[in-house]
Amino acid sequence: MRSFISLVVLLFAAAAAALSTAGNRLLAVLDNVADRDAYSQFLGDLKTRGFALSYETPRSEGLQLFHVGERNYDHLIFFPTKVKGLGPNLTPGHLLNFVKAGGNILVAMSSTTPASTSITQLLSELDVFLPAERTGTVVDHFNYDTESAAEAHDVLVLDAPTTLRPAVKGFFAMPGAVLALPRASGHILGQSKLLTPLLRAPSTAYSYNPKEHFAAVDPDELFAAGQQLHLASAVQSQNSARVAILGSAEMLQDAWMDAKVARVGATKSKAANREFAKRLTGWAFQETGVLRVNSIEHRLRGHNETNPTIYRVKNDVSYSISISEYSWDKWIPFALPGGDRIQLEFSMLSPFHRLDLVPTLVTETATVFGQDFTLPDQHGIFNFMVDYKRPLVTHVEEKRTVSVRHMAHDEWPRSFVISGAWPWLSGIAATVSGFVGFCAIWMYSKPAAKGGKKA
């Protein structure tokens, strides 16, 4: 009995230590396990946040992402590796199945190490494309660190991201901060709606083959230039699994986490690489931007019975949904970003109503959104549908099915209270009165007298 209680306590403690809503099992794939010493500060921050780290190389024989159909890990980090392929256990198919099973991946690349074929093909499946030669250094002759990259101009010093757009949560907004991205490898994004750019290259940057000299760069042969190049991007699949792409793995190393850098004509300032790495991994490993539906209620307006299965046409109903947002280590009320709306559809084959839900109650851990409306004059099978899909937050797709019946024979309003029926009621009354009057005249009229007798 004591051992059982101890086991329960240990399991509860393990669950409490995992600050990620998706679990705490994290696998870091490196070219050599000893390479983790260069990322000690970055990996130490992950351990402090409750992740249980494992380290493997692509050549590890015992490395398996799945066991009897279940994930062995909740999250993966890929650091640059010199091997062209990642082996039979990390094929593009395995990695794609890992994402389909709800696993999260962070891919950190470097221009000094070509991306492996598994990573290249995985990103291609996600509509993210790397240079054809599997490498490409992003340089900028105006936004580089004047001390460490005085000649190569391959250590970019860029402004940290700000709010992406009004309707997107500002998980990466760091106004006034700068980032140092040494030897970054750029990528371009396709047209998929699941992609969100986090950090774009400046308009003066371009990607070239480092084996070539600056003077030999042909503009027609550039992989991409300017804001076509992305240095950090996010992918959130339909099942809310996440893949983050970082173009500079070196920015995660101890030497660059808090380095002081300066652009041309500017004074030195401390790079916010550590804070950006925290926000990137926090989002990728589902420590932020996770939405939870606590409860859904619909009822006849003014009644206490919740979630009935059948309504009547033209009923006045109330609908409410309670949503929480996970932020690092706790659930907080979900607040819509500026200009955004969450909508309710009351639909059969197509929506009969599409209404904005408004906050009606805010508690310590949740926000209740609600709306009142009148059901349409149409009977059938209807759905209360909330489909909220936005960049950087997990999807909310909730459907409740109800029946809407027509009015019973004793539920129709009486004709005498309908003003539009008065002409017809008057016509009926006139017809009945005329018929009764005709009958009365006919019944009580004296027959005509017969003619006199003949002589």
UniProtKB/TrEMBL annotation:
Predominant subcellular localization, coarse grouping: endoplasmic reticulum
Pathway noted in the entry: Protein modification; protein glycosylation
Subcellular localization, as worded in the UniProt entry: Endoplasmic reticulum membrane; Membrane
Domain OST48 middle: 304-446
Coiled-coil region(s): none
GO cellular component, one term: oligosaccharyltransferase complex
An example Gene Ontology biological process: protein N-linked glycosylation via asparagine
Topology of the protein relative to the lipid bilayer: Single-pass type I membrane protein
InterPro entries from the UniProt entry: DDOST_48_kDa_subunit, OST48_MD, OST48_N
Domain OST48 N-terminal: 25-284
Record's keyword terms, sorted: Endoplasmic reticulum, Membrane, Signal, Transmembrane, Transmembrane helix
Highest taxon listed in the record's lineage: Eukaryota
Any one Pfam family match given in the protein's UniProt record, by short name: OST48_N
Family: Belongs to the DDOST 48 kDa subunit family.
Subunit (UniProt): Component of the oligosaccharyltransferase (OST) complex.
Function: Subunit of the oligosaccharyl transferase (OST) complex that catalyzes the initial transfer of a defined glycan (Glc(3)Man(9)GlcNAc(2) in eukaryotes) from the lipid carrier dolichol-pyrophosphate to an asparagine residue within an Asn-X-Ser/Thr consensus motif in nascent polypeptide chains, the first step in protein N-glycosylation. N-glycosylation occurs cotranslationally and the complex associates with the Sec61 complex at the channel-forming translocon complex that mediates protein translocation across the endoplasmic reticulum (ER).
Designated name of the protein: Dolichyl-diphosphooligosaccharide--protein glycosyltransferase subunit WBP1
Organism: Hirsutella rhossiliensis
